[in-house]
Design brief:
Order of helices and strands: EEEEEEEEEEE
Number of helices: 0
Number of strands: 11
Largest sheet: 7 strands, mixed
Structural class: mainly beta
Helix content: under 10%
Strand content: over 45%
Radius of gyration: 14 Å
Length: 119
């Protein structure tokens, strides 16, 4: 059994910053790719940023230069530092982790955390 707990969302003014965290616990052997997704009302869920176990990263064009994804393998945690936030960044943010367990490799999703950016 694997549990993911997200934290760090909230309400911020345009131009502000937030830092999201997603911590995994349970029967974890290792974690491969980690990613952050977001979903705004009426929109499909989209990839925001991802990071491999070797710390290679990729970002959606809309957040390049403003968001930074990082990971702490010892803590089974992924972070998303969000700077220069814009109202269009408002969404529910979800983490997704590729977790290796005794039963194999599975994707796990966090519960989602609301980010609201006011203009």
């Amino acid at each position: 059994q694997v549990q993911l707990v997200e934290s760090g969302g909230g309400l911020v003014q345009a131009g502000g910053s937030l830092r999201l965290s997603c911590a995994a616990s349970g029967s974890i052997l290792s974690i491969n790719a980690m990613g952050w997704y977001r979903q705004a009302p009426g929109n499909q869920r989209e990839l925001v940023a991802a990071i491999t176990r070797g710390s290679s990263t990729n970002y959606a064009d809309s957040v390049k230069g403003r968001f930074t994804i990082s990971r702490d393998n010892a803590k089974n945690t992924v972070y998303l530092q969000m700077n220069s936030l814009k109202p269009e960044d408002t969404a529910v943010y979800y983490c997704k982790l590729g977790v290796v367990t005794m039963r194999g490799l599975y994707d796990y999703w966090g519960q989602g955390t609301q980010v609201t950016v006011s203009s």
